[in-house]
Design goal:
With 390 residues, the protein is α+β, with helices and mostly antiparallel strands. 36% of the residues lie in helices and 28% in strands. The longest helix is centred in the C-terminal third of the chain and has 23 residues, at 327-349. The structure holds flavin-adenine dinucleotide and P-hydroxybenzoic acid.
């Protein structure tokens, strides 16, 4: 088999890349280890930055997103029995975020790609990337027990944080920056109308909690827990009791409903530098992870592949490889900006084991300043909706 760009992974990075390449007439094959149903059901991100929504619109992939996505023009910060609204749109010249499940984005992208005759091979697991430093790299993959070679001009490693593409880069060619935060999120999806119109980030002495949503009938909620906690130790009653405590506010109540999905996600930051090795280019979670607090992972994956698609288009059009050579450096500017914002948000709203009364007061002072100062809330808002240039 042969194609121009072999894309490993049918997550947001791989699928958006396939669409961007098709727009400029570049052929690709997407190789995905899971089946279609699995990738379309996997519950993950929910917040799309303005730039991500604009790109999906440009690609003509926003028909359902426009109908079902929920545009949010503000978020709430809740602490010390008070609530404060950060008016995102007022502070950013009208920009906003859209709440629309990642699995819905993935569904839309897969459907449109297949309808356009694009190739996505499901249950095809990449085993290795051969000869990345040559002009004929190969992705070796396994499907139905058989091994196949996909020859190509370039390999896009969009295979997430547990993929194989990163492993094709020798360790001595990589610098790895990593931080494991001593906190995790227990996330639930519940069949109950959201108790709020806008997302609520709550700082509480018992730990952070987040109220998000997926549809007018589905709530997505998170509560801070320890990374080593086990889901079995959290009964539905314990989860709701803890959420009730952390969101408690006079005159407001949290509606409960059946929990239909639950998971624990540790908060961590990882960056691999550089994001390229010969003709292998990493994008999205394969190259970097951000803690979920800033709602940035999916959006960063989309930014990477936008840079990558432009660089590949230039190479195919003119043979000029300067944009490709600069790929990693261009992406990493935004990656580090977003890593900083996500680290800052994580530090702001979580309660850490070593925190005593002093740190608690500092958290409250910081939150009050954010809510009371236009300069401080503008900084939060412009990062949250996504910076146009980083
Ligand atoms: P992935 O979505 O992980 O896709 C990689 C794909 O590669 C997968 O389909 C995988 O099956 C496939 N694959 C792996 N190995 C192989 C192989 N060997 N061969 C073939 N295929 C392979 N981000 C936000 O922006 N906003 C949020 O609100 C947000 N919330 C989150 C909440 C949770 C609970 C979690 C876990 C993540 C959240 N994120 C959020 C992060 C976001 O989901 C990820 O950053 C995003 O999925 C990255 O996209 P990706 O395409 O790089 O990787
Ligand atoms: C989500 O809806 O899943 C979500 C929202 C905001 C975040 C993280 C996750 O910061």
């Amino acid at each position: 088999m042969r194609t121009q760009v072999a894309i490993v992974g049918a997550g947001p990075a791989g699928l958006v890349l396939a669409h961007l390449l098709a727009r400029t007439g570049i052929e690709s094959v997407v190789i995905e280890s899971r089946d279609r149903d699995y990738v379309e059901r996997r519950i993950r991100a929910g917040v799309l930055e303005q730039g991500t929504v604009d790109l999906l619109h440009e690609l003509g992939l926003d028909e359902r997103l426009r109908r079902e996505g929920m545009v949010h023009r503000g978020i709430e910060l809740r602490f010390d029995g008070e609530r404060h609204r950060i008016p995102l749109s007022d502070l950013t010249g009208g920009r906003a975020i859209t709440v629309y499940g990642q699995q819905e984005v993935v569904k839309d992208l897969i459907k449109a790609r297949l309808e356009a005759g694009g190739q996505i091979l499901f249950e095809a697991e990449a085993a290795s990337v051969e000869q990345p430093v040559s002009d004929r790299p190969v992705v070796r993959f396994r499907q139905s027990g058989e091994l196949y070679d996909l020859e190509c001009d370039f390999v896009a490693g969009c295979d997430g944080s547990h993929g194989v593409c990163l492993g094709a880069i020798p360790a001595n060619s990589l610098t790895v920056y990593q931080k494991d935060y001593p906190v995790a999120w227990l996330g639930i999806l519940a069949e109950v109308a959201p108790s709020t119109e806008e997302l609520i980030y709550a700082y509480h002495e018992r730990g952070f909690a987040l109220h998000s949503m997926r549809t007018p009938h589905l709530s997505r909620l998170y509560l801070q827990c320890r990374p080593d906690e086990r889901l079995e130790d959290w009964s539905d009653r314990r989860i709701w009791d803890e959420l009730q405590r952390r969101f408690a506010l006079e005159g407001w109540s949290l509606a409960e409903g059946p929990i239909i999905d639950r998971s624990i996600t540790p908060m961590r930051s990882v960056i691999h530098e550089p994001m390229q090795y010969g003709r292998l280019l990493l994008a999205g979670d394969a190259a970097h992870i951000v803690p979920a607090t800033g709602a940035k992972g999916l959006n960063l994956a989309v930014s990477d592949v936008r840079v990558l698609a432009d660089a590949l288009a230039e190479w195919y059009r003119t043979g000029d490889d300067s944009l490709l050579d600069a790929y990693s450096q261009t992406c990493l500017r935004r990656v580090w900006r977003v890593e900083h914002f996500s680290w800052w948000m994580t530090s702001l709203v979580h309660r850490f084991d070593e925190d005593g009364p002093f740190e608690h007061q500092l958290h409250l002072a910081h939150l009050r300043y954010l809510c009371g100062s236009t300069a401080a809330s503008t900084s939060l808002a412009e990062n949250y909706v996504g910076l146009e240039t980083a």
